[in-house]
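Design job #97: recover the sequence.
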């Protein structure tokens, strides 16, 4: 575990350095592509300082969760969230503007990293191991592809939305903050689901697998209902504080129904993908993400935006997410049946 985490840490750091260099070489085109002022580059350059600290804290926090320290990681995240909010307020009041917001985030990322380095002191070997690196890459390469497809499609989607109009685009960005909070939460529950299902499958105990599947399914349905309700109420109450202009507030409330639908679909997406990852179906998820995120979602967003503007883009989100969930569910049921047959064969072989 010490060697695997250290190797993963070094791979992630060098990958981050490569990404930073690519961004620096291409950043001059960003303002014209997104139709924004060049001051946005200052925010980008300051945020790049926090890329490596963010990379380190991501790897180490995952390691701590594996050791069973999820509550400790939650407390650290809450502490950093409070510090970030305080620094944002102070820097904006002092007149730093967008640079202050970026600087506050970087300071918090560095603080978070230092806390995690302290927690992991003595339990991580920061040494590159070639054999472990090969094994890790086999496990993570399809997850990397999936993330690249999603990030790439989001990049292009933002370009499409920036052409619709400043008010609609700004409203979309505010609305997406609520969904980002939800997705971070669902990502955490997905990791728990993946661990539970993977452990049950590894036990080859039919009764345990069946019981775990039932518990996870019931829990997921409750989580989807509660999170959708919370996001809906939060948006209804808080949108007037974020969207000051009447036009943007009206757009925000109209997008509420799309957000609620997306909350439900996101809940099932993380549920299906967590189970499939526990079954090591990384390749299938990666391929599906390529076709849905990198092609279907972009095509729907482009054409619907010409007719319904921002609402058309969100309609494209909903349609592509529905198709994604249908295919994931189908694959999950098919693979679960195949996995059960393997377990039955192993049990019979052991009995013999």
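Job complete. Output follows.
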């Amino acid at each position: 575990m010490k060697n695997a985490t250290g190797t993963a840490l070094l791979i992630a750091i060098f990958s981050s350095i490569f990404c930073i260099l690519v961004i620096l070489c291409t950043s001059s085109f960003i303002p014209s592509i997104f139709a924004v002022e060049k001051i946005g580059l200052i925010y980008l350059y300051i945020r790049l300082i926090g890329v490596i600290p963010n990379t380190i804290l991501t790897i180490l926090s995952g390691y701590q969760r594996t050791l069973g320290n999820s509550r400790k990681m939650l407390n650290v995240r809450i502490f950093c969230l409070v510090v970030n909010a305080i620094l944002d307020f102070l820097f904006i009041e002092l007149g730093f503007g967008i640079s202050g917001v970026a600087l506050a985030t970087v300071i918090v990322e560095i603080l978070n990293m230092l806390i995690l380095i302290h927690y992991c002191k003595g339990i991580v070997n920061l040494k590159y191991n070639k054999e472990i690196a090969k094994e890790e890459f086999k496990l993570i390469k399809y997850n990397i592809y999936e993330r690249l497809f999603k990030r790439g499609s989001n990049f292009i989607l933002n370009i499409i939305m920036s052409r619709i109009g400043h008010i609609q685009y700004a409203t979309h960005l505010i609305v997406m903050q609520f969904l980002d909070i939800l997705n971070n939460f669902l990502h955490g529950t997905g990791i728990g689901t993946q661990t539970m299902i993977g452990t049950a499958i590894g036990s080859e105990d039919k009764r345990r697998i069946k019981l775990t599947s039932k518990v996870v399914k019931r829990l997921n349905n409750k989580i989807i209902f509660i999170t959708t309700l919370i996001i809906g109420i939060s948006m209804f109450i808080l949108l007037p504080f974020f969207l000051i202009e009447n036009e943007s507030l009206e757009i925000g409330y109209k997008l509420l129904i799309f957000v609620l639908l997306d909350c439900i679909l996101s809940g099932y997406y993380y549920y299906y993908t967590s189970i499939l990852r526990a079954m090591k179906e990384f390749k299938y998820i990666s391929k599906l993400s390529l076709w849905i995120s990198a092609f279907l979602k972009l095509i729907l967003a482009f054409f619907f935006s010409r007719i319904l503007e921002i609402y058309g883009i969100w309609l494209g989100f909903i349609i592509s997410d529905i198709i994604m969930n249908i295919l994931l569910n189908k694959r999950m049921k098919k693979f679960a049946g195949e996995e059960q047959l393997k377990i039955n064969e192993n049990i019979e072989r052991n009995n013999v």
